[in-house]
Specification:
single chain; 163 residues; mainly alpha; 0% strand; globular; disordered N terminus
């Protein structure tokens, strides 16, 4: 396998980096999943072809409460995971809306800065990818709250309760 020619590989590497960061960085992730810092460092390095083993994925996802790697693994197989929870409330609706708008602005800023010179460097593509990941997470949360409001028969954004 040639890692740099494989889009799936880059997706999984990006999700690994996100998961390691969410768990508190390389040292904390190493403690949580009982692997050495050098192994976790290789997982975190985009130029290293190493991917996490399942016990490490499970441990880090449980620690961080984020299931990025599981979702990515399922996504590369053409499937999706579904949550059956989320209760809409006015505060959470407005908060997720604001978060999605902020994340989109951050992505637009990263893109504008990266494209200004007409070139896209690996570092710039990494920053754009991190902004995209944050936007995808924000949109996912937004969709959960909107779906919950739909299931509850609507939601008043002016006062508490159903529409």
């Amino acid at each position: 396998m040639v890692p740099h020619a494989n889009a799936r590989h880059f997706l999984l590497k990006a999700k690994q980096r996100d998961l390691i960061a969410a768990a508190g960085g390389i040292e904390r992730a190493a403690e949580v999943c009982s692997y050495s810092k050098s192994v976790v460092g290789r997982w975190n390095n985009l130029d290293s072809p190493e991917l996490m083993e399942l016990p490490a994925i499970f441990a880090l996802e449980e620690e961080s409460g984020r299931f990025d790697m599981s979702e990515a693994i399922v996504a590369v197989r053409g499937r999706r995971l579904a949550d059956v929870e989320a209760v809409a409330a006015n505060g959470s609706l407005m908060a997720v809306h604001a978060d999605a708008v902020v994340r989109m602005g951050e992505l637009m800023t990263e893109g504008a800065m990266a494209f200004a010179d007409g070139k896209l460097t690996p570092s710039e593509s990494g920053r754009i990818d991190r902004s995209l990941a944050a936007l995808v997470d924000a949109l996912s949360e937004y969709r959960k709250v909107v779906a919950s409001a739909r299931a509850a028969g609507g939601l008043s954004v002016v006062s508490s309760g159903a529409a």
